[in-house]
Structure prediction request, 253 residues.
Amino acid sequence: MEVFAEEKLYKKIKNAVGRAIADFGLIEEGDRIAVAVSGGKDSYVLLHVLEALRKRAPVRYEIMAVNIDSGYPGYRADIIEEHLSHHGFTYHMEKTNHYEIIQEKRRPGSSYCSICARFKRGALYALVQQFKCNKLALGHHMDDFIETLLLNQFFVGSLKAMAAKMLADNGETTVIRPLVYVQEQDIKPFAKGNGYPIVCCKCPVCGVADLQRQKMKELLNTLEKDNPHVKRSMLKALSNVQPRYLLDQNLRR
Prediction:
């Protein structure tokens, strides 16, 4: 059994993931789950915690790590593969030519992230089907949910965030986000303490924070100074929707 360097944090994260699994029915008997591992801290933590839970879970399920190499020059997929192999994970490394297509198709001045994300999502769905998995686990954490909620409200004019469990657009794959109750401030020291080898995707904007998302982080940090529980309160609000007090005319029909 794997021993974690940050035992106190492990228990906190493990309990939060376990609560999310129970609350949203994320994992069920016989599931075969593909875990998207990008080389970032979030996906490493998700993978290792799901594996630790699997060994003691009351239901039987399998996990396998899947990595998408988008073809950006300098991307160290070998470091990720070495880590997965060393820890005995079942895994698959998928090499693609996404970077070449993005270079050809991307409009000048447009975001790399949006088009790259679409390509990766399609590749992940294909791998889920190829390896006969029924679920795809993504490493979005509590902060991602809340920041996405604020981004959609402030810049898109839509009241939505992410779902902890949802059927993907392909109508076949169930996407789950077990880190929904885990804060980024716990993920960072846990990943560092356990020596997970963080790998940058090496796209031209790698390491440069999205300006709008960074503003949301700063706003939340400011609000937390007065209310340390503001993130949990906002996450709870996503589970406490009262349609009669909203303006969407579709809800009134």
